[in-house]
Amino acid sequence: MTFRMPDDTRQPPAQRAVNRAEMTRRDLLRSGAAVATATLAPGVTLMAFGGSPAEAAGAADAGKRWGLLIDVSKCQDGCTDCITACSEENGWHDTGHPETDAQWIRKVTLKNSATGHTAEMPVMCQHCESPPCVDVCPTGASFKRKDGIVLVDKHICIGCRYCMMACPFKARSFVHEPTVNQKSHAPRGQGTVESCTLCVHRVDKGGTPACVEACAKAGHEAIIFGDLKDPESAISKRLAGYPSVALRPDLDLNPGVRYSNLG
Amino acid sequence: MERTIYREIKATNTVWGLAILLGAFLAGALGSVLYTEHHGHIVTGMTNQVVWGLPHVFAIFLIVAASGALNAASIASVFGQAPYKPISRLSAVLAMSLLVGGLAILVLDLGRPDRLLVAMTTYNFKSIFAWNIYLYTGFLAVVGVYLAVQMNRLDYKYVRVAGTVAFLWRLALTTGTGSIFGWLVARPGYDAAIMAPLFIAMSFSFGLAVFILVMVTLMKVSGREVGWGLLHRMGGLLAIFCMAVLYFTAVQHLTALYAAEHAGFERFILRDGGHVTFYFWVGQILIGGLLPIALIYLPYIRDAKSEPVWASIFVIIGGLAQVYVIVVGGQLYPLEMFPGYEISSTFNDGSIGSYAPKWPEVLLGLGGVAIALLAVGVAAKILRILPTNLSDANVPES
Asked: B54-69 and B128-151 helices cross at what angle (nearest 10)?
């Protein structure tokens, strides 16, 4: 068993800096207790000092709801720039085992059964308002931040994969093999479940997800990122002005990812 | 008849032989766990499409059977059927043993089994999985008290109260287990309230079958007699439970067939699913349902003493097939993310998946069975749970 340092990546960098500056004697004592407890009960330690969904939700801004709008008509056939960017940004790779490799984002080809029209589009975690993965997770490792980003707490994920059974979008992957070359901002762990984080580390710094950036860089601009709660944001205006759909609207999950021009 | 006397089984060569055999399976399972823990689940046949595989088939079978193994005790204590009273203790012990075996598989298959403490201390109460952790541990406690009350020969009213609590608890437990699937809204093979009563019927059937085999084996290895009348009484009950499972299965699939949206999934299970379809019709329906019913009711065959034993073996084979069809079959069929579209991707979207279990999964599953059987064997060796005589002349009449 290995003890891992508490994860503070759920808080924005500014908040983390303040927290560190405000370290009190109580924190020091708590650190001492952590060392002692780590020897005895790693599981308990992770629970007590690894941060909770409530803390993470506190770091996020409840006044925002981050989302994506994907214009399927602009998504180019054969282009995988969004996938490559996500893979490089978050450190998941093709290991030659397609059945078991993690795929935080993938291109799905659609063929309309009635008309024969085909289209390609990226599918990733849909960051649902009512995420089934969060409902079913026995430990609360699957959680939703106040700003709508759905994440997995790698410290309390026990690897039961019930969230993968529950997700309607096959958006989650199980880490089947030992991980190498991890990114410090996107920790991965063998035996835990992972999915698109909406590049939360970038978003918390005021940035945009890597897939959005790569798509724009390629000149396609098929993915718009923004605050769904802000009526003045580009994504809200586009959603208000043009028709769009959510995947599996029958489930009434209100995903944060929408698609337009599905055909 | 004489008073029912309970005695520990003696450690004969046969008993030692069985213990060593079960121990070997246990060692195999532990080796499998260490191997998988070290290399990751890549060494198993499970994938991102079939996330629950053979270990879960064994685990769910054992957990469901655990609830049903309590049948004999419930019938005696709750419904007052005297012929079942002498086997109530074994019934309670087997129920706990099967549950422990099933849970061991589930825990050891986790991606992070070292985080068991997290699972036991951090709860999301909206999750049926979290509820089940309480239902399972509570079952062990409730049945443990029930066993203690029986073994201390307390007044029958206490036995009845403890037995009634255990009976209600086992219904809740199997409801919870069925709801693991019934409450999955996204998959066409699940998302059905009938999963809970179906699992309850399955528990009655599988659990009684396992109980009959374990009871007969323990009595045989300890040189004790089991009467034809008791065995056939249990065989008759087993046939009724088989019919209940067939009934709920029929309702499950007929309801789904009626809805056009589920037609694709039903075609997969009932007609086009290859080995899944074979397991359904030949394993679940024929071997696990029709054959045991025929064995128990057909003239000439039904009088043979071995008939309930054979029926139990068939119910167990069919039960494993049924759980496989539910667990693996439900995942092999692709998610319908875009109704009305044909879809494809590098992530196997839109196509029927494949699943080929590998030896670590087989060893882990069999190891869970070994844990359950070893536990009940050890209990029979150190506790007075097995009657010295179950001949018909010595079994109380109802």
From this structure: 40
Is A136 close to B128, i.e. CB distance below 8 A? yes
pLDDT score, position B216: 97
Sketch the domain layout of chain B as residue ranges: 13-394
- Chain A CB within 8 Å of residue B331 CB: yes
A99 and A75 together in one domain: yes
Asked if B228 reaches chain A (Cβ–Cβ under 8 Å), the answer is no
Query: Which chain B residues in 92-111 lie under 8 Å from chain A, judged by CB atoms?
Result: 106, 110-111
A216 and A177 fall within a common domain: yes
Q: How far is B202 from chain A (nearest CA, A)?
A: 22
**Residue A38 to chain B, least CA–CA distance (Å):** 13
In whole angstroms, give the CA distance from residue B354 to residue B46.
9
Task: Using CB atoms within 10 Å of the CB of residue B76, give its burial: 0 to 12 exposed, 13 to 18 middle, 19+ buried.
Answer: buried
* pTM, to two decimals: 0.91
Same structural domain, A254 and A140? yes
Q: What is the CATH number of the domain that holds A221?
A: 3.30.70.20
> If we measure between CA atoms, which residue out of A217, A220, A261 comes closest to residue A239?
A261
Percent of chain B at pLDDT exceeding 70: 99
User: Could you give the angle at which helices A210-217 and A81-90 cross, rounded to 10 degrees?
Assistant: 140
Per-residue pLDDT tens over the stretch B180-231? 999 999 999 999 999 999 999 999 999 999 999 999 999 999 999 999 999 9
Domain count of the fold of chain A: 2
Query: What six digits make up the tokens of B167?
Result: 């009976």
Chain A contact present for B303, CB below 8 A: no
Convert the pLDDT of each residue in A11-27 to its tens digit: 444 444 434 433 444 44
Q: Which of A257, A215, A30 is closest to A125 using CA atoms?
A: A257
Q: Are A249 and A135 in the same domain?
A: yes
Task: Quote the percentage of chain A above a pLDDT of 90.
Answer: 71
In this prediction, does ipTM exceed 0.85?
Answer: yes
Task: Give B 338-397 residues with CB within 8 A of chain A.
Answer: 338, 340-350
Please report residues of A whose CB lies closer than 8 A to that of B60.
none
- Residue A146, burial from CB neighbour count under 10 angstroms (0-12, 13-18, 19+): middle
Co-location of A82 and A44 in the same domain: no
Question: Domain residues for A172?
Answer: 57-260
Contacts of A192 in chain B (CB under 8 A): 111-112
Q: Which of A51, A67, A92 lies at the terminal end of a domain, its last residue?
A: A51
| Domain B13-394 fold | Formate dehydrogenase/DMSO reductase fold (1.20.1630)
Domain match, A31 and A116 both: no
Rounded Cα–Cα distance for residues B42 and B59 (Å): 20
Q: Do A43 and A82 lie in a common domain?
A: no
